[in-house]
Fold this protein.
Amino acid sequence: MKSFKYTINGNVYKVHINSVVENIAEVEVNGTPYKVTMEKPSKKQVVTIKRPAQAPTTPSGAPVVTRPSSASTPGAVRSPLPGIILEVKCSAGSAVKRGDVLFVLEAMKMENNIHADRDGNVIEVKVNKGDSVLENAELVIIG
């Protein structure tokens, strides 16, 4: 069947495997025949696949993830990264100046400030604290 050459502690051994039936192998080591009983192979471990949990939903059953709208809304401040809203620092009707912090967004275990990109009044806040948002999702409309 197969032949191997091993060197153990400076001694050379020529091993020839004649046959293998179940767990008994007939081998020759340097011309001397041996019957070797091998351990039975252990059974394969069963691997349990963990599926991700279902996406969170609100009490009304709507998904918590805010999807970006396809139409572009003038004055919209958008999320630069996907993440979770940790703080909402503005409300509808409040006046904001360019550079004011509107939201704190957690993305990749880091807190990111989302700033106003223009002066104006907040017309609509589209997300709440704890909401998951995707990249480019509208967070607030400034008019």
User: Anything to note?
Assistant: The longest strand covers residues 11-21.
